[in-house]
Design goal:
Metallo-beta-lactamase, Chain A, binds zinc ion, nine-stranded mixed sheet, 9 helices, about 290 residues, seven-stranded mixed sheet, single chain
Length: about 290
């Protein structure tokens, strides 16, 4: 009985430390989850607010929300998301969101207004689940800048173009001189429009490293120190393409791939430094080069 009680209090202490660590963390943390072919990224702000961008693939046989996203959130002690951010309604981005909305408290669902009213079955189901759970649906149109948590500057915009990929929701989060840009699946034309945003320390490489993204002119402006490609092992699309990899290398980026490096964690601290850790070990650290303020 004593042993059981001791084990119980040990568990309480461990959970407490984990939660305390989350709230006490003064850094901005970004986690690129390993969801195979698809995207799922967790952003945690200093002070504890959490945001999720996309939630991986769902097919009839596989739900990355169940298999990876919800377990990772639980493992990190994330009990609530301020927002679940959907870049666009392709199955490899929207798929796991129903599971996320069913398992956690979520404040809002952000998505480009273009995709409303929903026509695709996965998006229709996601929005229905959001409404059932009392999650407000926030459609975005024009680029917007705002501050959330002290010192964290956001820019949220929507891509333009003919395809759903090009109409992805675009998010830039900046903390001191460090910044991360999330580009959904936009192509080169939409990327070039983002040149005005200035440097980003970290780039979530568009469209899983497709040949038609990672435009050279765009990369010249972004100058990402770390470029993360979220792609599946031996995926049928041939992502990432060697041309895109070459352009990223020429831009001087350290390229990390979830199909090779697994999960990638990046922290920005208050002193303007970044720290990178992948499932394979350290992937570097250093000072974020100055970026224009959001
Ligand atoms: Zn995709």
């Amino acid at each position: 009985m004593h042993r059981l009680l001791a084990a119980f209090w040990l568990l309480v202490a461990l959970v407490g430390c984990r939660l305390y660590g989350r709230y006490a963390d003064s850094r901005l943390l970004i986690t690129f989850m390993d969801v195979g072919q698809g995207d799922a990224t967790l952003i945690r702000l200093p002070g504890g607010q959490s945001f999720l961008i996309d939630a991986g693939l769902r097919t009839r046989r596989l739900d990355m929300g169940k298999r990876v996203v919800v377990p990772v959130l639980a493992g990190e002690g994330v009990l609530k998301l301020e927002a679940a951010i959907l870049t666009h309604p392709d199955a490899d981005h929207v798929g796991g969101l129903v599971e996320v909305l069913s398992s956690l408290k979520v404040g809002a669902l952000w998505l480009p207004r273009y995709f409303l009213p929903a026509h695709k079955p996965l998006l229709t189901e996601t929005i229905a689940r959001a409404r059932e759970r009392g999650v407000s649906v926030l459609p975005w149109v024009a680029p917007t800048r705002f501050t959330l948590a002290p010192g964290v500057r956001w820019w949220v915009g929507v891509g333009s173009g003919g395809s759903d990929n090009d109409r992805s929701l675009l998010v830039r989060v900046a903390f001191g001189p460090c910044a991360a840009l999330f580009t959904g699946d936009i192509g080169a034309d939409s990327e070039r429009v983002l040149a005005h945003l200035g440097d980003s320390t970290v780039l979530k490489v568009s469209h899983h490293g497709s040949r038609f993204s990672s435009d050279a002119v765009f990369l010249q402006h972004m100058r990402p120190q770390i470029a993360v490609i979220s792609s599946g092992t031996h995926n049928r699309y041939g992502h990432p393409h060697s041309d895109a990899l070459e352009r990223l290398r020429r831009a001087g980026s350290e390229v990390l791939r979830t199909d090779f490096h697994g999960r990638v964690d990046i922290a920005f601290d208050r002193e303007g430094r970044f720290y990178c850790q992948s499932a394979l070990g350290s992937c570097g650290s250093g000072y974020c080069s100055d970026s224009r303020p959001n």
